[in-house]
UniProtKB/TrEMBL annotation:
Gene (UniProt): rplR
Keywords assigned by UniProt, alphabetized: Ribonucleoprotein, Ribosomal protein, RNA-binding, rRNA-binding
NCBIfam families: L18_bact (TIGR00060)
Protein known as: Large ribosomal subunit protein uL18
Keyword RNA-binding found: yes
A GO cellular-component term linked to this record: ribosome
């Protein structure tokens, strides 16, 4: 029997997490995508700290007039701004089991435009 989409994503996510780890010098940018919103966190896995987070629900982002791909790009820029303020310039990108396509790709491009390197 075929895997459900949740089981398939869980397998992909574990496969990614075997190799992608966030350290103090190079934290992990984790992405979660729901049907309506997109969320991003910069995480130091060694110490178990979330350095900063951003989402399309933040008050800094007016996502009411734009489509979801443009909102994801704005979230990427916002997380990059917050990360640079926190002293983070290089990250490891964790796409969270999602394909690098659409909103996930747009968020990554926005983070690169904001000054993050990965």
């Amino acid at each position: 029997m075929a895997l459900s989409k949740y089981e398939r994503r869980a397998r992909l996510r574990m496969r990614i997490r075997k190799t992608v780890e966030g350290t103090e010098s190079r934290p992990r940018l984790a992405v979660f995508r729901s049907n309506k919103e997109i969320y991003a966190q910069i995480i130091d896995d060694v110490n178990g700290n979330t350095i900063t987070a951003a989402s399309s629900r933040d008050k800094d982002i007016d996502a009411s007039n734009v489509n979801k791909i443009e909102a994801a790009k704005m979230v990427g820029k916002l997380i990059a701004e917050k990360a640079v303020k926190a002293g983070v310039e290089t990250i490891a990108f964790d796409r969270g089991g999602y394909l690098y396509h659409g909103r996930v790709k747009s968020l990554a491009e926005g983070a690169r435009e904001g000054g993050l390197k990965f």
